[in-house]
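Reminder to self: tokens first, then the designed residues, so the page reads top to bottom the way the pipeline ran.
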């Protein structure tokens, strides 16, 4: 079992500016750990986490695959989150994380088109008004708009052009995001393989991991 990354460098004040790892984060970590042997067998060269926040997920992924065995890119619209991701990597002896301050994958495509072997996204999934979507602060970590799907739906059509031929996308959703509908969209509209591989109740939420591949 790979230990959860050390986050002891963060203060309570830091978590007012960046999303604090919670049950959703840990479900995504568990999904990656569950697929450890599969991920290693892919010998990934390029990994990307969208909306990295604290950097916890990418740091754990680098521990699974080996920090020097791949390039680890992360994006986040929140400048503090970009700095936090680097700090978490360094705190856990990972110096191979490169952060890009951007929205979703803006500025990454077409440079990384069909080159990302492992893609992770714990999106802003909370159901909010449309007007709350698009902040550059900590609200960007949770405000998901109608059905909590506005940011998710913006990304889905791009997945086919992001993933390498053997690439895997791990997407976290909650029940309000209609995860089976997301699976159907990826299969029927984008002709990709998609399935719910893990789910867990966290308080009043039911959280899901959807795995998407070519």
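Designed residues (214 positions):
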């Amino acid at each position: 079992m790979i230990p959860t990354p050390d986050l002891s460098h963060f203060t309570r004040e830091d978590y007012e500016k960046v999303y604090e790892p919670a049950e959703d984060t840990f479900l995504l970590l568990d999904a990656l750990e569950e697929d450890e042997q599969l991920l290693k067998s892919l010998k990934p060269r390029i990994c990307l986490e969208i909306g990295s926040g604290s950097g916890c997920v990418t740091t754990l992924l680098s521990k699974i695959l080996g920090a020097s065995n791949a390039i680890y890119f992360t994006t986040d619209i929140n400048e503090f989150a970009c700095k936090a991701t680097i700090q978490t990597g360094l705190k856990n002896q990972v110096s191979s994380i490169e952060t890009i301050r951007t929205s979703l994958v803006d500025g990454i495509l077409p440079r990384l088109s069909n080159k990302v072997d492992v893609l992770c996204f714990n999106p802003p999934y909370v159901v909010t008004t449309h007007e709350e979507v698009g902040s550059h602060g900590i609200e960007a970590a949770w405000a998901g708009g109608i059905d909590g799907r506005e940011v998710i739906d913006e990304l889905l059509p791009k997945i086919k052009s992001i993933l390498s031929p053997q690439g895997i996308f791990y997407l976290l959703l909650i029940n309000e995001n209609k995860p089976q509908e997301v699976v159907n969209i990826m299969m029927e509209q984008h002709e990709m393989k998609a399935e719910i591989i893990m789910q867990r109740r966290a308080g009043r939420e039911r959280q899901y991991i959807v795995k998407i591949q070519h």
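The two ends are 29 Å apart (CA to CA).
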